[in-house]
Amino acid sequence: MVFKRLREEIESIRIRDPAARSSLEILLCYPGLHALLFYRLAHWAWSHELLLLGRLLSHVGKLASGIEIHPGATIGERLFIDHGTGVVIGETAVVGDDVTLYQGVTLGGTSLHKGKRHPTLGNRVIVGSGAQVLGPILVGDDARVGANAVVLADVPAGVTMVGIPARAVEQRSKVREFLAYACDVDLPDPLLRLIEDLHQDVVQLRGQVAMLEKQVGLEKPAGDGSSVGLETLPNGADLKKTKLSARKGARPLT
To answer: What share of the chain is helix, strand, coil (3-state, %, to 5)?
Structure first.
């Protein structure tokens, strides 16, 4: 049973990492797999009330791999921690099957009480490098968390989250191929989309200003901008008197 699980985990790493050349290379050189093996031992000790031994094994695993997994965490099958340095998985975190975590990911808690305070990740979730998933939240199956995102609320299944705080930018109707670092070439750039939205707003505002100028009857300034037409405002006030009053500090005529 132990060797069957180990073979499955090695094979899942080969599928998700094109740099892996052999099972032996993965077994000897992949810190994510080493951290997972230490976790399995530490979790066994923890679940049998050998708490100090569990923490000691977890600490040794951290020194050996650079990955910290609390022995109280619940981790499913075929977890792949790619590169791995700086990954932290808290005590009450729950990780589903076929999850992928990249370097610098934190599954952390945001409270000091001893109950559930760490996130729950569904199956096939991908969390990009440097992302922070914080609090007792639920990240649904097949969700994606982009690099350096900070997730503070529940994530529906199949959604891609980016930014600080993280916001949904894509909802997939079906499961697609594995996406390294949760990076999709077809994913809309949120910054570019914001700039485009602002551009559209400016265009609309310019049109509205032009329409108002036409309704008011203002003439465009002459060459040097020193003269302005003496058209009448809609309420009957003379434009020249209005400008003169404004210069003296008085309120415009109404």
So the answer is: 35, 15, 50
Dist. CA 171–CA 127, nearest whole Å: 16
Left if phi > 0, otherwise alpha if psi is -120 to 50, otherwise beta: which for 49?
Answer: left
**Number of CB atoms found within 10 A of residue 226's CB:** 7
Is residue 120 exposed (0-12), middle (13-18) or buried (19+ Cβ within 10 Å)?
A: buried
R_g of the chain computed on alpha carbons? 30
Report whether 156 contacts 173 (CB < 8 A): no
Whole-model pTM above 0.70?
Answer: no
Is-contact 26 34, C-beta < 8 A? no
Report whether 66 contacts 85 (CB < 8 A): yes
Burial letters 185-207, b for 16+ CB under 10 A, else e: eeeeeeeeeeeeeeeeeeeeeee
Distance CA 19, CA 162 (A): 26
Residue type, 174: K
Question: What is the layout of strands, in order, in the sheet containing 159-162?
Answer: 80-81, 100-101, 126-127, 144-145, 159-162, 167-171
Over its length of 254 residues, how does the chain's per-residue pLDDT go in tens digits? 778 888 888 999 998 888 889 999 999 999 999 999 999 999 999 999 999 999 999 999 999 999 999 999 999 999 999 998 999 999 999 999 999 999 999 999 988 888 899 999 999 999 999 999 999 999 999 999 988 999 999 999 989 888 888 787 766 655 556 555 555 555 555 666 678 778 888 988 988 888 888 888 765 555 554 444 444 444 544 545 544 454 555 554 44
